[in-house]
Structure formats: C-alpha cells, structure tokens
Amino acid sequence: MGEVDVHALRGVDLDLTTGEFVVLLGPSGSGKSTLLNILGGLDTPTSGTVHFRDHELTDFDDAELTRYRREHVGFVFQFYNLIPSLTALENVALITEIARSPLDPLAALELVDLGNRKDHFPAQLSGGEQQRVAIARAVAKQPDVLLCDEPTGALDVQTGIMVLEAIQRINRELGTTTAVITHNAVIADMADRVIHISGGLITGVDSNDHKREAAELTW
After folding, report:
1. What is the pLDDT of residues 154-201, one digit of tens each?
2. What is the third-level CATH fold of 16-82+144-217?
3. pLDDT of 110-161, one tens digit each?
4. Direct distance between the N- and C-terminal alpha carbons of the chain, in angstroms, rounded to an integer
C-alpha cells in the first residue's frame, strides 16, 4: 500500500490431512481469508511455497492454477453467488458441466437435504437454503478439498448450525478435506482440529478428542 507494507501472513507453516475437518479461528483481519485464498490457488504468496500432494502450486502459472481450482477445490463463500434466473438444481448442474467425475446434481442437493426444493429459484429460498445450495454446488464436482470462508456470516445462529451440519456431513460421507474459516468459537467444537490465527501468525493448534487418523495431504 504505497510505502506501507502490510503482512497478511507471517511465517505460516501448516499441514492438512486427507479427510480432516479443520477450523481456522481468528478475529477479523487476522489473515484467515488470505490463507484460504492461498490454499485454494486464488492468491499466490510473496514468499514461501505451497504444496498440494506432489505438486508445488507456487510454480504454477495462471492456467495451471485454474485447472487446480477446477479439478480439486470447492469454494463456499459468505455470500451465496447463486444465479438468480436458475433453479437450485440448475445452479448445481452448472458446475457439473466442467467437472471430471461429478455427482448427479440432485444427489448433491440431497446431501444438503434440499432435494425437495430443486425447482425453486434463489429468491424463493431462505438464506440458509441458498447457502446449502452453494455448498451442494461446491461439492457436486467431488473436490478433494472444500474451503469455506465465513459460510455462516450472513445467517442467524440456528440457520448457521444447519449449514455447518451440512458441511460436516459432506466431510464425513465424502471424505472431503474441509477447512472452514470463522471468528465464531462455537464452530470449533465441530472440527477435528482448530488452528488459531492472529496478526498473520498461527498462535495455537487445538486437536479435538474425536480427530481421526488420516493419510497426509500437505499444503
């Protein structure tokens, strides 16, 4: 920013494992979204390296990063980004047209308990239902990794719990490595591991008792 350097992340060293449910917990401005964007290939770090399995993402050009995002990563953001002129089913089906081995769009909606709302347009759905459609769209391409940036930020508490339960169900049933960033400590109880971030630094890691053994998937 002109003559001012802002270090969003500083010396972060992080491994994620296959099938793990991780919460990145920290206040606004702590660097959570920057870290998520780097994991998802949306941003590249100014120093350091990022690895996905045996690939070094920091060596990828724009086309290779696009392929990585398309084939391996599903994104869920705070705002739903649904196409208003398409039904719930059509919004999900849109992503399956560019995926290698997608789920059936209706099956993806049923994973988030919205099979009965498949013909409804976004304006006919509640906020929580729209977010669950966005989750179904993200997982319909069967990504290796699901990255969620404040998925409950625009929702009330009870609706947020329903959305988080849908994410947790996908993590358990599909074995999708899942990282959720939030500033809500209540969500941490759902995770295998909680990574605390403050001021661009990892300040602590908590493992919950139910954490499962998993093969290593390194970033």
Report:
1. 788 778 888 888 888 889 888 999 999 877 677 777 889 999 999 998
2. Rossmann fold (3.40.50)
3. 989 999 999 999 999 999 999 999 999 999 999 999 999 988 887 887 788 8
4. 28
Per-domain residue ranges for the chain?
Answer: 16-82+144-217
